UniProtKB/TrEMBL annotation:
Protein name: tRNA modification GTPase MnmE
The organism's taxonomic lineage, starting at the top: Bacteria, Pseudomonadati, Pseudomonadota, Alphaproteobacteria, Hyphomicrobiales
Record: residues binding GTP: 227-232, 246-252, 271-274
N-terminal signal peptide: none
A single GO molecular function term of this UniProt record: hydrolase activity
Entry keyword set: Cytoplasm, GTP-binding, Hydrolase, Magnesium, Metal-binding, Nucleotide-binding, Potassium, tRNA processing
Top-level taxon in the UniProt lineage: Bacteria
Main location: cytoplasm
Cofactor(s) this protein cannot do without: K(+)
Length: 437
């Protein structure tokens, strides 16, 4: 993709819509604007213009905005055209844009890629931006906002500076050690700071489990014997008939899932086949899949009808809560359960929600969102701290070796924000974007 291209795309959502925003970025953006709208309006000020095709035929009236590079999202000259969001209107304008030489439709993520290449955003910020566009819950939004606005990047760059400073001091020491030793106390201070940094990064890494829950969701698996009322609970929490409910034991075979928003957290709720010794091969497969889901759950809700004597809780390392169902049939029995419900009588559903949301808050806390949330971030930070610990551990090694370990540690932070060695990562990151972003 030649950098000299001017790219354009519909940047607003699906059509038809009240307004459609078309973004144009690149060296020909202003020339295109002059030809379409008669002039280039003053930067960052919306101006109402007639927008015409290349034959002077009126396409639409709309607002035109200009952004002079580098003061634009991509860092290039940019134009935004806000026109009516009718399919034919948008199609006509896109067709007109495509006819200008050097102008072509943007690829997915290409505006953001240019922003990265022009130093407007680093990789962590771009990952945050992708998450912000995908955010469906309040906590996802907060996490992504923090990240896309550079809070994490600033933290990582601060750490990188500390590592590079330490390395420079160490190298100074072995450069001059022949003539005049730098005082022992300076070296001691450096290594004390590096020890503290290692702790800080490890503490930050512990936040990954929380970030992952916020970003990817908290996985709750409903399990229990056949006919316990699992699918009924799933439907009640989802507020719609996701799963088939019948009086026949063994109704659910496949794993079904719905996404819920509980207090701003994404909850991924799974309904599974009732666990029993099944003779039917399809049901056996369902039971096998249920066991698999339970193993990677964050929380298991184990359902059984209240008063049902024979309760076998799954023995797994994830927390299991015991839920009594069909309370309408056996009122008064509440002992031994973490919650008692009746989907038929609409009892206890609020308790289930509270139980799940308390469990999430226990794990995530509800304050700080300056935490890593992607596996890529987690891996780079782990590699960074590993190299740092190597430098700290090898106290008797030659200083060159220890300085080299500090350099590698700093490089991992550089890769994390994309300051170095990024080509191979770009495809993976930008492919998440839709066209127009
Ligand atoms: N009285 C009463 N019946 C219920 C309640 N919840 C579910 N049932 C009934 O219990 C039967 C089984 O419900 P399901 O939701 O299909 O149970 P399940 O655990 O998903 O069953 P399998 O998928 O077959 O393992 C159905 O006939 C439901 O109508 C309840 O709160 N009270
Ligand atoms: K059933
Ligand atoms: Mg079921």
């Amino acid at each position: 993709m030649p950098a000299g291209d001017t790219i354009y795309a519909l940047s607003s959502g699906g059509l038809p819509s009240g307004v459609a925003v078309i973004r144009v970025s690149g060296p020909a953006a202003f020339e295109v604007c002059r030809r379409l709208a008669g002039d280039v309006p003053a930067p960052r000020q919306a101006a109402l213009r007639s927008i015409r095709d290349r034959n002077g035929e009126l396409l639409d009236h709309g607002l035109v905005l200009s952004f002079v590079g580098p003061h634009s999202f991509t860092g290039e000259d940019c134009i935004e055209l806000q026109i009516h969001g009718g399919r034919a209107v948008v199609t006509a304008l896109l067709k007109t844009l495509g006819a200008f030489s050097g102008c072509r439709l943007a690829e997915a993520g290409e505006f953001s890629r240019r922003a990265f290449e022009n130093g407007k955003l680093d990789l962590v910020e771009i990952e945050g931006l992708a998450d912000l566009l995908a955010a469906e819950t309040e906590m996802q939004r907060r996490l992504a906002t923090e990240q896309s606005r550079g809070a994490l990047s600033a933290l990582y760059m601060g750490w990188r500076d500390r590592l590079l400073h330490a390395r420079a001091m160490i190298e100074a020491e072995f450069d001059f050690s022949e003539e005049e030793d730098i005082p022992d106390s300076v070296a001691a201070t450096i290594w004390t700071d590096m020890g503290a940094l290692s702790h800080e990064i490890k503490r930050h890494l512990q936040g990954y489990a929380r970030g992952e829950i916020i970003r990817d969701g908290f996985k709750v698996v409903i399990t229990g014997p056949p006919n316990a009322g699992k699918s009924s609970l799933m439907n009640a929490l989802a507020g719609r008939d996701v799963a088939i409910v019948t009086e026949y034991a063994g109704t659910t075979r496949d794993v079904l899932s719905v996404d819920l928003d509980l207090d701003g957290f994404l909850v991924k709720l799974y309904d599974t086949a009732g666990i029993r010794e099944a003779s039917d091969v399809v049901e056996q497969e369902g039971v096998r899949r249920a066991a698999q889901q339970i193993a990677d759950a964050d929380l298991v809700l184990h359902l059984s009808a209240v008063g049902d004597a024979d309760i076998q809780l799954p023995s797994v390392s994830v927390p299991v809560r015991k839920i009594g169902t069909k309370a309408d049939l056996a009122p008064g029995i509440v002992k031994d359960y973490d919650a008692v419900i009746s989907t038929q009588a609409d009892l206890g559903l609020g308790d289930i929600k509270t139980l799940i949301s308390n469990e999430i808050k226990d794990r995530v806390g509800d304050g700080a969102v300056s935490i890593p949330s992607r596996l890529r971030q987690q891996e780079h930070l782990s590699a960074c701290v590993e190299a740092l610990d190597e430098a700290l551990r090898s106290a008797t090694a030659p200083l060159e070796v220890r300085a080299e370990a500090l350099r590698r540690s700093a490089d991992w932070l550089g890769r994390l924000t994309g300051r170095i060695d990024t080509e191979m990562l770009l495809g993976a990151i930008f492919s998440e974007f839709c066209v127009g972003k």
